Amino acid sequence: xxxxxxxxxxxxxxxxxxxxxxxxxxxxxxxxxxxxxxxxxxxxxxxxxxxxxxxxxxxxxxxxxxxxxxxxxxxxxxxxxxxxxxxxxxxxxxxxxxxxxxxxxxxxxxxxxxxxxxxxxxxxxxxxxxxxxxxxxxxxxxxxxxxxxxxxxxxxxxxxxxxxxxxxxxxxxxxxxxxxxxxxxxxxxxxxxxxxxxxxxxxxxxxxxxxxxxxxxxxxxxxxxxxxxxxxxxxxxxxxxxxxxxxxxxxxxxxxxxxxxxxxxxxxxxxxxxxxxxxxxxxxxxxxxxxxxxxxxxxxxxxxxxxxxxxxxxxxxxxxxxxxxxxxxxxxxxxxxxxxxxx
Length: 343
Fold this sequence. Notes:
By secondary structure, the chain is an alpha+beta fold. The chain has helices spanning about 5-10, 10-75, 85-95, 95-100, 115-120, 160-210, 225-305, 310-340, and strands at about 105-110, 130-135, 135-145, 150-160. The chain contains 8 helices and 4 strands; from the N terminus they run ααααβαβββααα.
């Protein structure tokens, strides 16, 4: 039996497959929505983290510059703040490393706030990020101004740096969802198989009963649902069928005995008819001579009585009497033999 034939003949497997398909469809939609939602959440979290690091870095740089300016004023000196000084602060304090830890391919820049190049990338306010397509690649540009100074911090990174932060989480979520669905399907198969097991037993019992094994036991019903009622109905049907078969067997035995008696009577009747024919044939042969003698003697008396002498008449009378006695004895024997057979 092939796999398709097993599925076609197993209601449990068919029901499990239908339920499994429904569960897989629902689970697939749920997992897809969760993946999309997690992507958005983790992407926003990565963006917010990068933006927060930039904001903290800008604040620290501004504080460092303010402290340097206060020191220069106390020494009656003038501190000139330019991009080179800010870049040196970034390098000395390792601010770029904090960015590259989460965005390994990111590039850290210090740019002027009035830069036409920066304004082409950042729409509206200079603080924030923008997602653009540059030379066929999707990139993110983050910008954070350094307080009210003329400089801003900018980070440019490919979109993969943002997506890689949640790709592992995405696969973990898919794997966890797949394992959960498999466990759910296994539980469904166990539950469905347990509830449909009495139906399987009933089907096997009904098949054996249909094959003539009426003594096949039907399992007792432990539930009051449809399967339980079906079990009770089949047990009653089996009992009624057994009683009917016993009654039919008794009638068959009685008919067999009657047939045997009729066959015996028929055989005896045939034997009696054969014996009767034999007896009649024998009697007929034995009566032929006396009857012929009686007929001849009677004919002689009737035709020649005037010319016959007294002795001849006496002889014919004697023949007639002997033939009559012989015929009478044969008839008595014929009548006595059926009575003897009947007794």
